[in-house]
Amino acid sequence: MSIRNLIDLNQLSSEELDDIVDMAGRISRHPTHYCSACRDKLMATLFYEPSTRTQMSFQSAMLRLGGKIIGFDNPNSTSVAKGESLKDTVTVLGGYTDILTIRHPIEGAAMAASLYSDVPVINAGDGGHLHPTQTLTDIVTLRNVVGRTDNLVIGMCGDLANGRTVHSLCRSMSRYSGNSFVFISTQKLSMPQYIKDYVKSMGCEYSEVRTLEEAIPYLDVLYMTRIQRERFDSVEEYEAQKGIYVLDGKKMSLGRPELCVLHPLPRVDEISYEVDDDPRAYYFQQTLYGMYARMALIIRMTSQHETCAPVKREETPKFTCHNPKCITRFERYLPHLTVDTPKGKVCAYCEHDEN
Amino acid sequence: MSIRNLIDLNQLSSEELDDIVDMAGRISRHPTHYCSACRDKLMATLFYEPSTRTQMSFQSAMLRLGGKIIGFDNPNSTSVAKGESLKDTVTVLGGYTDILTIRHPIEGAAMAASLYSDVPVINAGDGGHLHPTQTLTDIVTLRNVVGRTDNLVIGMCGDLANGRTVHSLCRSMSRYSGNSFVFISTQKLSMPQYIKDYVKSMGCEYSEVRTLEEAIPYLDVLYMTRIQRERFDSVEEYEAQKGIYVLDGKKMSLGRPELCVLHPLPRVDEISYEVDDDPRAYYFQQTLYGMYARMALIIRMTSQHETCAPVKREETPKFTCHNPKCITRFERYLPHLTVDTPKGKVCAYCEHDEN
Amino acid sequence: MSIRNLIDLNQLSSEELDDIVDMAGRISRHPTHYCSACRDKLMATLFYEPSTRTQMSFQSAMLRLGGKIIGFDNPNSTSVAKGESLKDTVTVLGGYTDILTIRHPIEGAAMAASLYSDVPVINAGDGGHLHPTQTLTDIVTLRNVVGRTDNLVIGMCGDLANGRTVHSLCRSMSRYSGNSFVFISTQKLSMPQYIKDYVKSMGCEYSEVRTLEEAIPYLDVLYMTRIQRERFDSVEEYEAQKGIYVLDGKKMSLGRPELCVLHPLPRVDEISYEVDDDPRAYYFQQTLYGMYARMALIIRMTSQHETCAPVKREETPKFTCHNPKCITRFERYLPHLTVDTPKGKVCAYCEHDEN
Predict the structure, then answer these.
(1) Which of A113, C6, C84, C333 has its CA 20 to 30 A from that of A126?
(2) Does C266 touch chain B (CB under 8 A)?
(3) Considering chain A, what is the average pLDDT of its residues?
(4) pLDDT single digits (tens) A54-90
(5) Any idea of the CA torsion for A49, A53, A55, A60, to the nearest 10 degrees?
(6) Nearest Cα to B74, choosing from B44, B52, B106, B47?
(7) A83 and chain B: CB distance < 8 Å anywhere?
(8) Testing the interface with B: which of A77, A84, A96, A307 to mutate, by most B Cβ within 10 A?
(9) A105: number of Cβ within 10 Å
């Protein structure tokens, strides 16, 4: 089983996803068995915006497999600063290496890169759009820590309106049977309707509450995220409400003994340091499972023996994406590509649907 | 056959150059045969100005040979920022490693570095002076793509006045018999007289034209380069002329089926994207041959079993170089060294001749 | 013999120190024997302030042992910039890797890091506090160049008031019998009283002089350091005195044939370039011994087969460190830890004693 690109976790079949999750578990138990799995393979990490944590997770994963790494994390010191297109950078680095990992502030950039790369491409975050290896990390952690990914009551707390991490996790966990969700946020930062509709359409239940206290006693999993100060309507509202969404020892005392607390990190102050010593705090182990998940993914994506040119897709000539953050607005040579969804044709790069 | 330093491609004998070009071809056909050729060797890339593309080409080359890399690409975060001399940095890093690759904004810096390094030094670009591995890349590409480096009609288009890349390629291609050149540029950006004289002195013909259209039907090779907007006399002139030097599908249709289009990259807009799909566009393959060329070079330069102190050269005590961009102006401890040329003694670092 | 952390060189027993120094000597004689000693081990270099020279010495050391490296050197492009705590960064990176090397501008940061790391921690400099691998480098150099570390007359020249390097070397060399010190500096930049008291308490003699000339004829070792211009009371004083502390050929002519000149580098102008060719100048070899010293240290610190959680230490609840540069002022979750000294309880992080 080999995977050409990982742009969107939902593009993996259930079999492919299960295969990677299982392999990540095996790696976590016997990491040294895999220390030559990618010997003589070279990965480039193309980070068009700095994200040292994510970059070091990919780098550690590749080095732990016996592979090698090159890359950049500062577009100001690259050919990009001289005006080079994404196409040219990807084409050249795809020639030097065996796999590309790309992080980019613009939506759809990873998909665009995959059109020009002779080697597999991993999306390590494309603006506010997708971050599939974070969700893969979350699933691997649940499988190994909780022991299952179905029949769970999953709380999500923080900025649910803007967090691509929680949106993506909702979609992926809806694929497993018997999961239900509790969304914990202010009114303003509540989960978008299209995610709630999706959850429903997959046969999962959800509820919405305003405080951590009322939700925590019922949860199997609590997924914490950061609320940025500037997301509140006023300083007064921030001061009044911030404590409600901070997880501390007192709130933990309301949780079940089997509770599993996760966080994509970095945290700022939404989890008190006293919680770190609670055996139900799994956010540091989560980063380790993130490295194992990436190891499994890299093995599956570099197992092809030959490089292969990317598949040419048919253009939708008159289509123009209206999302101002879409990569097609910045890289004008890109072909006009669409995908069909229940809502009609949407941009194949950023999946923006108000066209 | 082993090479101590690569400061100037013209310092290689024809046998040495052919040997490297041939080896690069063998590596391109069987890259995995060389994956341990530099095992346990360490290269430092000292980039005193950022050039991510060139640095990643060297890094990929070394890693593909099983070697290891350290280095910097931002002098602001180095000892250099604390006022350390080139001599001290090179001496220390030559102690840590097996080979140094140096990129520097000042002319003659690589030559200066070679005076203090116990290990081989590669010039990866010293200001506007030399960039020998780019020219080596071009030669390796022609040998492998066109099949020969002699009896070619070579067009060069763009900023021929200021481009060290085209100057260097002219000199190197003049060493092979039967080559002729067509220089395509504005009057202001035309090839300098001393290069034209050199070409002539080597028994090669050249002509000069003002448009791509008139030249392209006769070319075996078209070497495109960038014209910077600020090189034109006025905005009006830029607007009027820019299209003349942009290679597009229409101009390509005038070229011969055997035409080989090259470009040192990064491009901005001097080659239209539509040309990328033309089978005569070889600029992306050219970057791959650049990696193979550097692999061959590194193998030849690290094959010595012992480090050896640099050879001391005799000083020309009263000589002072008058080039304000020469490294001797910035690093005052450097010995006064000259080389004899047909024009008389010139600075051994920057080869500037108006002294 | 394995070492958990290296925060302060004085925490090593004499046996541990001798073992590392001996091993560094063996590595310097047969470096290739150790080229697989850390195969499949991964080191992270966490440089919260740039220090390219030190970072490249550690990186070269790890790569020369067959190990691998990740890391950062620019906190602005890391999770740190998003407000992440030292604890979280260290916990996560300790999960990815086998050993951490940390450089930080705040005193006590390396000790703080060691509280949260499941893998060994090396202090690569914590503000003005300690820099143990520099002192280890100095000791390894003396053992290999001079042949002994006892019964030496050691001159130290430059800014002795503010130099953590000379303070640390004084303390370490006082542990060996028969050493005596000559402190060469201006009145204002003279060695602090507590260092002089310490030297005395260890049974070593010292004297203080104002010029290099009067000291140099009697020295076995001359340890040069930089005096920053801004350390002088006025520009006039700087101009008048700077030459007194510059080592040049004339002053070298007053030294004994066995003199060994050291400098932690980078130098600016406190040693003239003409001295570089004097066989008694050992400061470049010193950087090489620094790499060998770090290789020996890394071998000893990664030889444990299992990761082990850091030892929990008992808090001193009401203790607050009054040093404004102490890490406890910046990372508020840190436990209040003290150590007992002859002067009473002092902060366990920065060892500041005016509490």
Answers:
(1) C84
(2) yes
(3) 93
(4) 999 999 999 999 999 999 987 665 666 667 899 999 9
(5) 170
(6) B47
(7) yes
(8) A96
(9) 15
Chain B residues with CB inside 8 Å of A88's CB?
265-267
**Beta pairing class for A121-126 and A5-6:** parallel
Query: Looking at the partner chain, which of B77, B91, B96 has a beta carbon nearest the beta carbon of C291?
Result: B96
Q: pLDDT tens-digit profile of B85-144?
A: 999 999 999 999 999 999 999 999 999 999 999 999 999 999 989 999 999 999 999 999
CA distance to A34, A102, A180, B65, per residue, from A298 (Å) = 12, 13, 31, 21
Identify the DSSP state of C102: E
Q: What is the pLDDT of residues B273-316, one digit of tens each?
A: 999 999 999 999 999 999 999 999 999 999 976 667 787 888 98
Minimal-distance CA residue of chain C relative to B74: C52
Q: Do A52 and C79 touch (CB under 8 A)?
A: yes
A302-309 long-range contacts (CB < 8 A, ≥24 apart) are A302/A38, A302/A41, A302/A67, A302/A98, A302/A99, A302/A120, A303/A2, A304/A2, A304/A120, A307/A98, A307/A118, A307/A119, A308/A4, A308/A118, A309/A118
Three-state helix/strand/coil letters over chain B: CCCCEECCHHHCCHHHHHHHHHHHHHHHHCHHHHCCCCCCCEEEEEECCCCHHHHHHHHHHHHHCCCEEEEECCHHHCHHHHCCCHHHHHHHHHHHCCEEEEEECCECHHHHHHCCCCCCEEEEEECCCCCHHHHHHHHHHHHHHCCCCCCCEEEEECCCCCCHHHHHHHHHHCCCCCCEEEEECCCCCCCCHHHHHHHHHCCCEEEEECCHHHHHHHCCEEEECCCCHHHCCCHHHHHHHHHHHCECHHHHCCCCCCCEEECCCCCCCCECHHHHHCCCECHHHHHHHHHHHHHHHHHHHCCCCCCCCCCCCCCCCCCCCCCCCEHHHCCCCCCCCEEEECCEEEECCCCCCCC
Q: Tell me whether residues A288 and C91 touch, CB distance under 8 A.
A: no
Residue of chain C with shortest Cα separation from A286 = C92
Are A282 and A262 within 8 A, CB to CB? yes
Chains meeting B at 3+ CB pairs closer than 8 A? Answer: A, C
pLDDT, position A305: 60
| Number of neighbouring beta carbons within 10 Å of residue A314 | 8
Ordered structural domains, chain B, with CATH: 9-130+288-307 (3.40.50.1370), 132-286 (3.40.50.1370)
A276, burial (CB in 10 Å: exposed 0-12, middle 13-18, buried 19+):
middle
Compute the distance between CA of residue C349 and CA of residue C339 in angstroms, rounded to an integer.
9
The mean pLDDT value for A278-293 works out to 98
How many other β-carbons are positioned within 10 Å of the β-carbon of residue A324? 9
Cis peptide before C266 (omega within 30 of 0): yes
Which residue in this structure is represented by tokens 């890490």? C327
Interface residue B96 vs chain C (CB under 8 A): yes
Q: What is the token pair recorded at B126?
A: 């010293």
Are C207 and C182 in contact by the 8 Å Cβ rule? The answer is yes
Instruction: Tell me how close the Cα of A120 comes to any Cα of chain B, in angstroms.
Output: 17
